[in-house]
Amino acid sequence: MNSKMSQEPVEIIMIEDDEGHARLIEKNIRRAGVNNRITPFTNGTDAVSFLFGPDGSAATNKNKPLLILLDLNLPDMTGVDILGRVKSNEHLKRIPVVVLTTTDDATEIQRCYDLGCNVYITKPVDYENFANAIRQLGLFFSVIQVPATN
């Protein structure tokens, strides 16, 4: 393997069933200077089959630079279930997961962190919080085009 592999841009997997929220999140991502590909899913079933692949092992996404934006309230399953499955899979567990939800329930927040979410953001997504979250994930320089300073 050559070192170019690590230069593959991060793909953002957005799992959000509310179209208005999805558009807003995408707008915030673009405003933060992130031009990476965003692959949207409006339900858990499609997102899970994408992440875990045809055989359910997730081997197809092994070493792929992904970032998951996960809404907790989905029509077909809970985001918490997806988070748990992602974080307990050997190929996916290192993928950063940003939980985006309308609830600021402390128990729910704690549960997400216990399961391994990296950042928990309450909707409506605040632009500054979002940009900070991406920075904290250490993905800042790989996803945001920072103008060179002289």
What's this entry about, in short?
The protein has 150 residues and is α/β, with parallel strands linked by helices. Helix content is 37%, strand content 16%.
Structure, explained:
The protein is of the alpha/beta class. It has a single domain, classed as Rossmann fold (3-Layer(aba) Sandwich). Helices cover 37% and strands 16% of the residues. It contains 6 helices and 5 strands, in the order βαβαβαβαβαα. It has helices at 19-31, 44-52, 79-87, 106-115, 127-136, 140-143, and strands at 11-15, 38-41, 66-71, 97-101, 119-122. The chain has a 5-stranded parallel sheet with strand order 2-1-3-4-5, sandwiched between helices. Helix 1 (19-31) links the parallel strand 1 (11-15) and strand 2 (38-41). The longest helix is centred in the N-terminal third of the chain and has 13 residues, at 19-31. The model is unreliable at 1-6 (pLDDT under 50).
